[in-house]
Amino acid sequence: MRWAAGLAVMMGLLLSATPPRAQTLTFGNNATVTSIDPHFYTATPIIEVTREIFDGLTGMRADGSIGPALAESWEPVAPDIWEFRLRPGVTFQDGTPFTADDVAFTIERVPNVPNSPGSLVIFTASIARVEVVSPLVVRLHTRGPDPLVPANLAWVGMLSRRIHEGATTTGFNEGRLAIGTGPYRLVSFTPGERVELARNETYWGPPPHWARAVNRTIRNAAARSAALLSGDVDVINGVPTADLARLRADPRITVEETVGLRIVYLHLDSLRERTPFATGPGGEALASNPLRDLRVRRALSLAIDRGALAERVMEGSAMPSAQVVRDGLSGFVPGLVPAHDPAASRRLLAEAGFPGGFRLTLHGPNDRYPNDARVLQAIGQMWQRVGVQTVVDAQPWTTYSARQGRQEFTASLMGGTAVTSEASYPLRSILNLRDAARANRRYDNPAFEAVLDEAGRTPDPAAREPLLRRAVRMAMEDVAIAPLYIQKATFAARRGLAFAPRVDEMLSISAVRPAP
C-alpha cells in the first residue's frame, strides 16, 4: 500500500532497512487485525495492537489487576466523581504534550466513531461529563456511582485533541493519525495480514527491549506451530491443543498458560418472532421462532456435554462453565454448574410441542477460537441425539463476524471476555445491553437489567457481590446465552524469552524480554 511504503521510508531515520534479527520480535497471531483506530472495535486483536501505540489512563496487568498508566493515581472524591492525576512530562510520539484536555477529547470521541461494529462506549457510557481541573488533573462525573471507571479506562486509548480532532478510522489505518503515547509507533499496516511497529524512543515508561516488532496474522493453527518451530516467528498465541504435548517436549520451546477471562458460548435467538435458520422436522416453515420458548433453550443447553467439550474436544485447554465468569471473579455463583441431561432435553422439547424435534443450523467461525470448528461439530452431534436435526455451518471469521454482527443467525458460537475481571461487563457486552435504543439487543428482561443496573450503582464490593450473582443467575436460568467453557490463554515461544501469560489472552509485545 502506498501510504505504508511512505511511512516506512520516514521510519528509516529511526531504523535500519533490515534490523538485526535479535532486535526484532515476530508474533504469530491467531486473529486478524482489521484497524489501528483504538476506538473502532472492542475486538481483542485490535486492542492487542493499539494498546502498544496508545496508552490508557490505567493499565491491566497480566493477572487482570489494574495499575497506573497515563494516570499516576485516582480516587473517588464524591459518590459520582472520580479524580485522576496525570503523569507529568508525557508527550505523544510527535512531541505534543498529553494533558487533561486530551482525556476530555478522547471520552467525547468514543461514542462517535462511525460504523463501529463493537463500540468502546461500553467503557465510557457512565461518564456524564469531564471536568478539566488543571493540565494534569481531570474529574470524571458519572451518572451515579460507578466503581468500574478505573478498570474500564484501561481499555480506552488516549488521543490528542490537537492531533486527532476530526480523526477518521481511515486516517488511523493509513498511519497518518496513528500517533499515541505508547511504547511503540506504527511503521506499516496491511489490514488482515501484518502490523509492523518500531520502538518509541521518547516513551515515558521503561523502554521495550525490541527495536522492532511484527504482528503477523496466521489463522491456520498448524501453520502457527510450524512457523514457531521453523523460527519464522518468535511467539504464538492460540496454541493448537493437538500440538501442546509436542511443543512442551521440545527443548527449543517454552509454553506459558493461564486460565483466562474468555467465555465461549452459544447465542440463541430468543427475541425475533421469526428466525431464519429453524424449520420443522420436515423442513416446513414454523409459525414462530422455537427459541423464544424457554423450554427449547433449556433443552438445547441440557443436550450439551460441556465436560466432553473441555476435556476431549479442547484436550484440557478449557474449563466447562455454566456462567459468564470463572471462580475467583466477582459475580461467580457457587453451585451453578454445567448440567448434561439428554433425557430432560427430550422431555422439554416434547413439552414445547416438538416431540419429533426440529431442524436448526448452527453457525460459527472456523478460524477464530481454538478448535472452534470441532466444537461446532461436537455440539451438532449432541443436538442430533436429542432429535434436533442440526446442520453446522463454519465460516472464516471475517465473513462470520460481519454476519453475526448483523444478527443473521439463529444459533451461533461466540466468545466474550470479562475484561473488568467481574461479571457485569460480559453480561452487558454479550447481550448488547449498551444499545440504548434496544434495536439490536440480544436479550430483553427488564427485571434482570434492573438488578444489573443496581449492581453498577453500588460502590461497596460487599454489597455489590450478591447483586452481581443474582443478575448472573437470572440470565443463566433464562438461558440468555448457553455458556460452554472458559478458555485457557496459551502461548508458546522460542526458549530464551520471558513473559507472563495474560488472562485477557493478549500478548504484550513491550513486556516480552530475554530470559534472565
UniProtKB/TrEMBL annotation:
<comment type="similarity">
    <text>Belongs to the bacterial solute-binding protein 5 family.</text>
</comment>
<dbReference type="Pfam" id="PF00496">
    <property type="entry name" value="SBP_bac_5"/>
</dbReference>
<feature type="domain" description="Solute-binding protein family 5">
    <location>
        <begin position="66"/>
        <end position="431"/>
    </location>
</feature>
<feature type="signal peptide">
    <location>
        <begin position="1"/>
        <end position="22"/>
    </location>
</feature>
<keyword id="KW-0732">Signal</keyword>
<dbReference type="InterPro" id="IPR000914">
    <property type="entry name" value="SBP_5_dom"/>
</dbReference>
<dbReference type="InterPro" id="IPR030678">
    <property type="entry name" value="Peptide/Ni-bd"/>
</dbReference>
<keyword id="KW-0813">Transport</keyword>
<dbReference type="InterPro" id="IPR039424">
    <property type="entry name" value="SBP_5"/>
</dbReference>
<protein>
    <submittedName>
        <fullName>ABC transporter substrate-binding protein</fullName>
    </submittedName>
</protein>
